[in-house]
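Objective 1b: paired records.
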Amino acid sequence: MTSKPRNRHLRKIDAALLGAKIVKDGVEIVPVLAPLKGAVGIVITILETVRTITTNKEDWATLGRRLSMQIQSMQDKLSHCPIPHSTQLLLAVNSYEQKLQNVLTRVRLASGCGLPKRFLHHQTDKEDIMELNLEIVDYLTDFMRDISIQTHETVDQIKGDVNRAKDGVERVEISVDAIGDNSHISKLIPVLSATGEDHDVCLHGTRVTVLDPVRQWVKDPSATQVWWLTDVAGAGKSTIAKQLSTEWKVQRLLGGCFFFDKNRSDGTNKQGFCDTLAAQLANNQPHLRSLITQGIKEIGPTLSVSPFEDKLQKLVIRPMEGVALVLVIDAIDECNERDRGIILRSLLSSLSQVPRLKILITSRPERDIVELLDSYRSCTNSLHDTELKSNQEDIAAFVKYKMRSLVRSSELTEKDVDQLAKRVNCLFILASTACKAVQDSPDPQATVRELLDSNHNLLCDVNSLYLTILTKAYNVGQVRQASASSKQNLLLTVLKAILAALTPLTISTIDALLGIKITKRLVGFLSSVLSVRADGTVLILHPTFREFLEDRTVACDFYLDMADAHRMMAKSCLSIMKLELCFNICRLESSFTPNRSVPDLDERISKYISKELQYGCIYWPNHLISSNITSQDGEDGSPVIQVIADVYPLFWVEVLSALGKIPKAIKDLQDVESLSLGEELDPIINDIKRFLIAFSTPISESIPHIYISALPFTPIRSHIRQAASVLFPNIISVLIGCSENWPEPPQEWLGHSSDVTSIAFSPDGRRIVSGSHDKTIRLWDVQTGQPIGEPLRGHSDSIRCIAFSPDGRRIVSGSGDKTIRLWDAEAGRALGEPLRGHSSGVFSVIFSPDGCRILSGSYDNTIRIWDAETDQTLRGQGNRVYSEAFSQDGHSVVSSSDDKTILLSDAKTGQVQGDLKGSDSTIWSMAISPDGRRIMCGSGDKTIHLWDSETGRVLRGSFQDFSDLIRSLVFSPDGHRIVSGSADGIIRLWDTETGHALGKPLKGHSGSIWSVVCSLDGRRIVSGSNDKTIRLWDAETGQMLGVPLQGHSGDSQSMALSPDGRHIVSSSYGSTIQMWNAETGQLLGKPLQGHSSAIFSAVFSPDGRRIASGSYDTTIRLWDAETGLELGVPLQGHTDVVSCVAYSLDGHVIVSGSWDKTIRLWDAETGRVLGEPLQGHSGGIESVAFSPDGRRIVSGSHDNTIRLWDTGAGRIIGEPLRGHEGTVWSVAFSPDGRRIVSSSWDKTIRLWDAETRQAIRNSLTGHNDTIWSVVFSPDGRRIVSGSGDKTIRLWDAETGQKLGMLLPGSSVYSVAFSPDGRRIVSADDKAVRLWDAETRQALGEPLQGHHSSIRSISFSPDGRRIVSGSSDKTIRLWAAETDPVSSLCSTKTDPLDSIHIFDGEIASRSHEKREMPPVLTNLPGIPYGHHFAPPGFLNCTLSEDGWVSRSNELLYWVPSHNRHGLQHPHILTIPTISPFRATWIDFTDFCYGTSWVKCRK
């Protein structure tokens, strides 16, 4: 993904800033450069101001880079000048400074900084900037000429310097392209504020006793590689780190530095650590740039989400191999404990790779840091030891230096300064804060007296001093007249904002959020404890001040309750949102253009979305969460209600879309939900979260489509829809296909179109990822069971395996296409190119524990370890590999094979480390103990073997007590027990130490066990079997908990236990996923409306008003043929598949046949069963039919016979009709009831006399495969049959002669005549086809819409509609006319004239009648756009990710469950809320394109 223009612009400015600040560091400590101090400061101010300009950004960036280059050139010149400097040189520098001041004034004019409002609209155009660039070149020319006398340079040399200056844009690349324009290194995202720019260096001549030993250590090649400088807070560690890093930078010894700071959100974690060091390394050591670039290339597109250790190795450690350099890591105690442990362990483990590398680390002596670094602790005396003379002298020198100007002005005496220096206890932070307090005081001498007053003892510790400083802040100018309490409240309010801010805020942003205008004055008076950057950002000078404010025992009245601070910030964020959010906040002109293609979107964001609004929109949920607010907090929830109870959520989503923060908002709202804010708020928060999840695709891609795509498909009763519908009338109207409510979590998660092969929980348990034979990967929200975003597409074959990375940011998938792919789990996109190397399908993928490597197993009999774009093949197992795993530390790989061995291999090199032998058969399963010390395997010889992973020694004899091979093994979390599952359906527990069986075998499964899992607490065992059940067991007693978890209709394919052990998710052969409560075994979610499995039969009632259907789920359901709504409750009574249903001619009775070998009769009105089941067949029943007079029923069965039944008496009539040699798949009466026709698995058709039950002539032959369906024509003169041989045949019913053959090209499962006998309809794998019965020609194109084989087909009594039932669990109604404008609902009483159908319910329509779109029966042959676009908007396409567009112009987006119905408007799908629901859209009032803003009233 290419970087945005804004990012490129900022990178260039930041690069220039970094270069200028490096010069500033040198100026601070190198005397020869001292004259440049003023010029450098001005250049830095110019660059920081340029950073805020929003017009002509690239031109300003060029000017900034030219200035940065100039100041570096001047540094080089002055470094060769003798000291003392001549008057000529000092005058040259002064002249240059004055000219820079002129530049600064013009830059400020362009930015509007500090100018009257009448100037704010002034924009400096390109010509002005170019002129300024030329002037800057002239400035350098003058400077070089002025100093030529002192440096004795020739005119040619001066010209050369000037020419190089004119070429500055190119030259600057050499010094700062580490984070500039270099095509690879510019991809790094360094934390610029972590380079120590806010820290001062040591005062010249101080801290020598600390600095000199470190300086000597760096030069000593035999010294330890790490120097740990540790002391209490405020001792001056960061100043020392800054001093040394600056020196080493000048000496070209510095690799890079990172200054942690808990006042910055990016200064307390490992994010950006590697990028920052790598960027500095490339800048400081240009000769290593190519090695860093190589590392970036190897990591590839995953750079931003690549694991820490991977980035550290490739971007930092590896480039420094063989080079003597220093890294400086300051204040690592301010990094969170988890991340600092990772950083330190990674650095320490890498030392052997870089023996010439030295690392200086500073921190407080925190326990976890001491454990890792104690052996590297410096021998330097305490930095704050009051007994050390050097410390006393250093502090005295520092205080005198800071107070020198006050002494010169006679505001202080030398005695005052000496006393102050003695009283600060050698603590640097105390001295620094005291000096700042005196400097900022209007009466310095009075402040010194107060500090020295022994009665108050203010300098005994820094907390007392902080208390004094805050107390004095009461007297800030604009609040003098306020009461003491209000002054204090105002002061605390500002401090709360500074401390609670999740990213540093500017003064203006704090003012705006708090609704005040005195932050600048308050912060100014607190300059001894707070600092303000050039851009106005406010920072706490030292973490001890934060610690003081958060400690009630020392802060007293100034104590800040951080929960209260976050609550205040949450309210402030919500208030600014209510004030500033508005419709079309970025002033976008067209809805056709996605966000990424709006050329000036960044400028619009800067112009129209204030910094305070950006902050509020991004962070209000985080503040709310940190505030610990609950529903019991009364009116504290009111600001939330005010913002989210209207249309503001849509305006908020606009800002999130512009800033790319939709995924973050979804996560944050999930956290907010956990607060339980009350009955009023909780449903609204949930509604907004559901909106973001359901429509993440369109709202992330295009701001206008929040309204014109997401809103129309939002459920009618949702809060967002109800609040916005009146204000946004001019959007598409979804007449059919929009749900009334958000769907409840379903029992079956639908989204894949084929078998779900692999599933996994994310590490936080909030998402599930699934892979399928349909070649896609899906992410699911665990709470709602709904898919997140669009399917991830990229593989060209089925997905065989899938896994989350340990941090949950990436997904890895393996496929039958022989490749492995990495995906960004947040953005939902592929990362880089597929990993290729296997020569056969990939069946297993695993991340290493640190997330740096991927282990894959393939049917090519190899295992590979992948490291970004590189891979190692683990060879030595030439036979099939069945199992592989990383060791707990990630250093080794263990694999098993059918060659009866287990191999241990080095995870980095792929070299075989050991070969474990002991099994006499194929090793099917394997596990590693939690401590990594033992390896066990289960083999085909029905034994378990245990090895010591260190020595490869077999631990005790094999575990034996099995009657079949062992398919699954797992250690308990404590490693004391082993759980095994075998092909005999039995689970056993074993004592790891003794090898003895624990208790009795766990029996219950009736099929092979393919998976066993232990809960994290070790108390439960979960097992999955091919008996289609999942079972829960008590690990202590061995008792089964509850009943088997049944729900899947096929064998389970994959199973996973959530990280918290509360849920089990499973998939099966089929396209569904199910989730269970791991405590109770209850299937979670709401059952799907309609049949839960394949539909085998669907028929119209004789009056055409109802449809009856029979299913694999053992039920019969009745449906309204006009609306698609289910009538009553399912008809239940059969115990196996209902394979066939039929109506009596009067429509009063329904007959059903089942695989349970019975026939049942039902009252068609009440659904009540009539009488007892009809029993007589010895096999399942496949077909039933009523005689025309309704007095008899005929049935065909798996027992190869046909039977006749007396409907009234409920008994068998005579003996079975025998003759077929296989299952009788279809039976039918002739129209006069005198004959019966049957078809069979034996490829024949037979005719029978219905009275005598004798065969009429020989069987009809001609088909060469199973004949699935046979039926008489309405006049009884013909027979039509459909077969698995992909043909339809017509027969003369009297003579048995063949009348012709139709060729649909696919197996035909069902055929039927139209009521007039002129047409034939057939059903095959996925298409319904119409034929002319006379000419035997196809009528129109096949009717496509079902996603699986069609098992049943029939005409309505009037011949105008066709009903089909399919294995995809749906029934579909089709228009039978071949006229392309005929309509399913174009009856005289169109049901849609007076009703809306939503989510299976009927609601009256209050708005004016709208004309329905025409139904296109030959849709597949008609171009897209003729039925789902506004008039005149032609040549549209519907992409697989739901966009209806034309030539990259986005028209609107369609949810996945509406796409099928949109493409096939002639189909009414039952149930109406299925993923294939009918969808009709009205474009009458649709405003789009350049008119999209008119969608709002």
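Objective 1b, second protein:
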Amino acid sequence: MNDLNVPPSISINNQADLQKWFETIFTPVVLVRTTPSVENICLKNNLHFIDLLRPYQTVKELNYSTITLQNFSVNFVKIPDLHREYSEDGNRLSNRSEIEQREKIQQQFIGHIIRESYNQLSEYQQQQSEALDISPWFDIYRDEYIKTLNLSEHETLMHPVACVSVISSEEANDPIQTLKSLYDPENPPKFFKDFGIDSDVLHIIILVHDHFYSGGLEKANLVFNKIKEKYKASSCRLLVLNSRETNEKPLTEIWSNSMPRKDLYYRNFVEKIVPNGQHLSVTDVKYIQSTVEFILSQVVSFMDSKIKSVTSTVVANKKALKNRITSWFTKKTKAEEEGISVEMQIRRMADMAFMIRDYETSFAHYKLISGDFKSNKDFKHYAGALEMMSICAILQNANQNKKDIENNIDSAFLNYKSLDQSGFALRVAFIQALLFKIKGSFRKAGDVYMKASNIDERNFLQAALFFEQTAICNRVNLKLTRKSALFLILAGYRYSHTDQIKHSYRCYKAAMKVYFSRDWTQIYEHMSFTMGRLSQHMKDLKSSVNYLHDFMTSCKQTSENQQKFMDEFVQTVTAFISEQNEKGIHDAPFDFLDLPKINTTSLRILLGSQYGSPVYADELPNEEWMKMEESLVKKMVGSLVFFKWERPANDFKKIEPSVINEPVFVEVYISNTLGIPIDIKDIELDAVLNGAGDNNSTMDENDKGYVTEPISVTLQSQASIAIQLKVTPVKTGELQIIGLKWIIGNCIRGYKRFQVKGRRLNDTKQQRINVQYEQDNRLKFKIVDSAPLLRVNFTQDIRQVWNGEVCSTSMVITNDGRSSLKSLRVKLNHPSIYYLGNNMNTNTLPLSVNDDKSSRIQYTSDVNGILNDYSFYEICDSLDAGQSIEIPVFIRGSYSGHHDVKFLFYYEPTEKIDELKYRLYRFQTKLEVLESLKITTFSETTYTDLNSVVCGVKLQNFRQDQYLEIGQLASVSPLWEVLPIVPLETPIIVMPRESYTLYLKIVKNHEQEKKIDEIIGNEDKLPNIELLHTHLISSKDKIINTSLTPYKQFLFSECKKHELTYYGHPVYSQEKNTTNLVDIEDQLNTLTLQVVWRSSDKSSLGISQHMRVAFLPHMKKPKRIHTSAKFPTKENLHCPIEVILDYEKEILHQFEPSSPMCTVTVLVKLRNVSPDQNTEFTLEFLPPYIQSSAAKRTTVIGSNPNIVIPAQNYYLWNGPTRLFMKDVKPNSEEYVVPIQACFFSPGVYNLNQFRIAWKQTDTGISRIIPHSFAEEQFLIHVRTPNVEKTTVDFF
């Protein structure tokens, strides 16, 4: 669409041109509202309905009554044309992005017409004298800016005087309702109210009928007659379209020339449709023309009647006091009812008079209301009245006081600007400058343009246009001065930022003639960029390259200027190289450029020879890696090892070894001093390899002995980045890196030689006087022959497990080097999470089959290896080049959190290399362990068996998505084992985010006790102590034997963390020459509880462990009384109420249909133990958490089958469950409250289920203590008589 012709603006050279311009700018606005069906009919011709009207919106002569108007026109608009923030339905747009899109299209439209109108310059200069300084782009911008101003409430020039509602005969809905939806005077569109628009406008109805519509003309006539019955018949028109027959000649395209420039741009570039009118006939066009003429005559008639009406009522009432008093008792007009003030009604009447060219009447009424606006301090309305007064005075051609006109228009400009009304301020500036120019006052016009350029400083295109006009107005005798040239530079600079390249070039070229070779430093510095571009334009590429190079190093311009400068510089150099190549001159040197800047003092080397992967030669590893390396290397080669962190950080005397085909990396910092990004390509190292081959000096370019890999980066403005460059030696010898090469702009080759210095010598006086530096060999490398190189990876990289989950994968270790290795060892930092198996063929978890279907199985294992270092593994003794080994890796989520897992591998070359005795490889991965099953325990001493303990196990499922199925529990202890109090018939189900409480019995195994008594006496047999693995089975799935690998190793790793060996700590005494066992009793009397669980989807299997179950203290000193504070204060708010439960600890009851419930009496003993405070309290007994009203419930989870979940310790209280006691004295007597507990099935129950709310009446201190607040557990065992005493007699 670049051939789109931009219609020129009116050339204003005298008073007549100015009047003609005003008549085209300020025309009556006619609002056109259509339905989608109307637009669909018109779009058959690639036209909108409003486009059909525009060729005829101007008539050469219009006669009405005593009014004769020459070249009168109206402005057909839609609602978005009046205000860009409103939609077609009259409501303000709520979507900000749509508003921004409209503003963007507006800016693109303005840029396009200015760019295209530049081509008209030569035509204008041929037709007119150069003294007129015609700039058609500015005239077009001025007209479009004024025409596209948004609607405002302070003036009515853009308020509609008429509304044309257009519907079609194809409307599906009731035509009357459709017309009301387009415009209803009683309920006008919202923007009428927003801007105070008078809804009493001329309303014209047009019914459009498609000639080829299936309903035919008869239906259209029926609809039209219905419309005329509702509306005034003289305001209704029927318009038939698309009646052209196929054999009829198409019409000439007449619509584009009449379209506004903005609509023309929108059709071509946004909608991308070309008007053609291919379905319109000559008759259709005549109907359209007559319809528009009808609208124009109706508009003038309406405006004339409106003016007379307002003049006879509102104006008369305002001028005469008597009439004003009378108006208080008369009925208000419709405009007054809508909240339109008298002044705005007069303003509307004055604007109408102005548009029908009655300038004298309009001037009088503008003047009449200007005083009211000023006295009311309504300065925006006041500025609008002054503006129109000035225009009317100019157009009357009367002997108006010129000073008054200038003062009025200047006052209007200042008021608009102070109110931040930039759009209307610029309109006044345009008019004021035109007034000065037609009078020959160019300097004053230039001052106006100068003031206008500062109104919106962010709009560079607008500022450029005003600066250019300022420069033209400041010429002397048609010659540029330094002042006018300065404005041209400002205009050219802003043109360049708005993609107006031709205008920018024209301004700079004109200004350069004034400032060339002048001693104006800042201006000349700015002009130098343009001079480089001009040199290229003048084909003097050599001068352009030299000049741009000289200026580059000292350029202090903004980033925008620097970007243009760099682009031009690269383009100029490229053109210059092409020019030189055509002349036969190749490889033109460009080693002058210091861009980017290379910081040679910050060079860093990355070597892979020591750790297999690149690491900084001068950087120390973190503390964990250091400790792992020291431990591993000293274990392998002895303690006489020198590590690099033991020497000074700036000691670079040592020449580091490197291996053939293993890259050496150099990290160097490059910085960009410009304010623009720079693309740097083919950055590579320059090196030399000494001692490679027999005749290194004669090596050709293709046999350098090393290979480099160029990289490319984009360096942002004022940025400094570190880049890593690689050089790979392919021959043995001494490699020395000497410099850096790079390319900018695809043609400029830069080079920088590295100059590094060692540490400053300060040992002798001579060294202190003369600046001397130590030898720096960081850029030299001893290239050795082939060596082994390790590579490690997991077959399945597991990054997330649940706490306790056990899974497996395999670790593949490959020798990628060119020689074999030996003594492959590894050290890891999380031995309790990772275990490396030694069976190369098995990487699955071992599971056993419960053949005898027993619910209780015992295994035994020894404690040999419990003190082993599970962080160290011997992988293999040798591995040939190119070979791999696969070892099983077992993972268990031992504890929750994010873990940084490190594996440090050690290996040695099979063939001895003096420079490289051993190598290390760091392998690192991440593992996240999520919360899953948490185990907490509490223990209570039994009364019937002093060597047993009841252990309560609370299982909490922290998972939110799946339940956990527990089919196996195990205990590990040298002496103790667990028994179920109630047989586990089915797996335990712990629902998501819920808990389950299980009761077990801990008893001593007397056979194990005898064995241990025999072993304890013999120190050598201590590691032979057996561990008893007692498994309680309730699942039909395969079970886990925790005495097998890797489960036992995970247990031993946890034992080391808890300082648990199961046979104490042997301590040798030199004095007595004996070994004492420290803490052996505590070690032997420990028990570890293991819970084996599976997730509901069977995707995960886990073993959750609870180390060192605390049960021995309860055997030694059982407690039954709730502890309470003696002196409760605000800082020590313990409960002052002592609670004791007295009940029978074991109950025998036969649960039968005749006796389904067992009732036990519980005596609750209460006492206030506070020494000095009166207390009131409320005791409330609560039933335990119940999942179902029955003893069991059935739950369906997802697609799984029904799962039976036993109720957890369900019982009820019978009796007074809520007790309130007031004013209990300190150290009071004991209150006894009887209550009954009702049980419905055998089992162990916890009666610690009550809540106390207490308050000290003297101090006001109060608290609510929740149920189960005491550490002690009140357990009761209800059993049936047929259960053997030896199994369940725990109390």
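The CA atoms of residues 1244 and 1277 lie 4 Å apart. The chain has a mean pLDDT of 81.
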